[in-house]
Amino acid sequence: MNRTVYVNGDYLPEAEAKVSVFDRGFLMADGVYEVTSVLDGKLIDFDGHAKRLHRSLSELDMAAPCTDEELLAMHRELVVLNGIDQGMIYLQVTRGNPGDRSFVFPDASVKPTIVAFTQNIPNLADAPAAKTGFKVISIPDIRWGRRDIKTVQLLYPSMGKMMAKKAGVDDSWFVEDGAVTEGTSNNAYIVKGNKIITRQLTSDILHGITRASVLRFAAEAQFEVEERPFTIAEAQAADEAFSTAASIFVMPVVEIDGQAVGTGKPGPVATRLREIYLDEMRKAAL
Ligand code: PLP
C-alpha cells in the first residue's frame, strides 16, 4: 500500500509517517482515537465523532491538537489524496513526546501528537457479513472503568476478538455482573417485538456515535427504545440481536454462545435499521 498519511500537520507517504519512541501513545497508551466511515467519498457522522473526540480529550486533560474546521479539512484531504470512495479514516491523538518516559503528564509545552490514515474498503456498505450476520461468544468484561473514553488501550478488546476467532465466530460480547456491556468494538442490542433494548450510557460502555444515530432513527420509525442492561440468556431468547459501530453500521447478530437468535438469520428490524441508517447518513454526509 502507498497511502498518504497525516502526521502533525504534514501529508506524508506512509513509509515516512513516523512518531517518536518516546511518544506517550506508544509508551503508555496515553491517547484517544476516532474512526469515521466514508461512503461515496463523504464523511459519515463527522460532527458526532469530532464531538466525542473533544470529550475524550477533555476527560483525560489533554489539549486539542487543532480546531474542528482543521480536523474536517484534514479528513477531507485524506479522502481525496487516497481516492477513498468507501472506507474509514482512523484518527489518533496522543499526549505527545516529552522526550523521556515518566508517569507524570508532561507540561503544556509538549504538543499532542496527531496522526490519521485511511483504510480503503470498497464493499463497506455492502459487506457480505451483513447478509449472514455475526456469530458471537460472551466473555468476561475485564476492561478498565472508563470505557466511555475512546482510548487506544485496546489490548483486551483485541484479545476478545482473538477468542472469538479461535471459537470460529465473528466477535465477542463482554459480560459484567451478569449483563452484556458491549461488543469488542461495537454496541450491543436485542429486539423483542417492537422494542429495541440496549444498555444505558454510563462509563461502562463507549457512547457510540452510530448508537446515537440508530436510536434516533429507530424512534422516528416508531420502534420503542429501552435503555437497560440485558443478560446473555435474554439475548438468546430475543427475536433479534445486532451490533452497531462506524465500521459495521448495523450488523445483525444471529448466534450467541452457539445458540441461534430468532430464526438464526438476519432479522427484519436489524435489516431495516441498517437500510435506514445508510440512507439517512448518506444524505447527511459531509
Ligand atoms: N463500543 C466499543 C468498545 C467500540 O470500540 C466502538 C467503536 O470502536 C463502539 C462501541 C461503537 O462506536 P461508534 O458507533 O462510535 O463507532
From TrEMBL:
GO terms for molecular function: L-isoleucine-2-oxoglutarate transaminase activity; L-leucine-2-oxoglutarate transaminase activity; L-valine-2-oxoglutarate transaminase activity. Its cofactor is pyridoxal 5'-phosphate. Belongs to the class-IV pyridoxal-phosphate-dependent aminotransferase family. One of its GO terms (cellular component) is cytosol. Acts on leucine, isoleucine and valine. Its EC number is 2.6.1.42. One of its GO terms (biological process) is branched-chain amino acid biosynthetic process. It holds the Pfam family Aminotran_4. Pathway: Amino-acid biosynthesis; L-isoleucine biosynthesis; L-isoleucine from 2-oxobutanoate: step 4/4; Amino-acid biosynthesis; L-leucine biosynthesis; L-leucine from 3-methyl-2-oxobutanoate: step 4/4; Amino-acid biosynthesis; L-valine biosynthesis; L-valine from pyruvate: step 4/4. This is Probable branched-chain-amino-acid aminotransferase. It is an enzyme of class 2 (transferase). The keyword Cell inner membrane does not apply. It catalyses: L-isoleucine + 2-oxoglutarate = (S)-3-methyl-2-oxopentanoate + L-glutamate; L-leucine + 2-oxoglutarate = 4-methyl-2-oxopentanoate + L-glutamate; L-valine + 2-oxoglutarate = 3-methyl-2-oxobutanoate + L-glutamate. Keywords: Amino-acid biosynthesis, Aminotransferase, Branched-chain amino acid biosynthesis, Pyridoxal phosphate, Transferase.
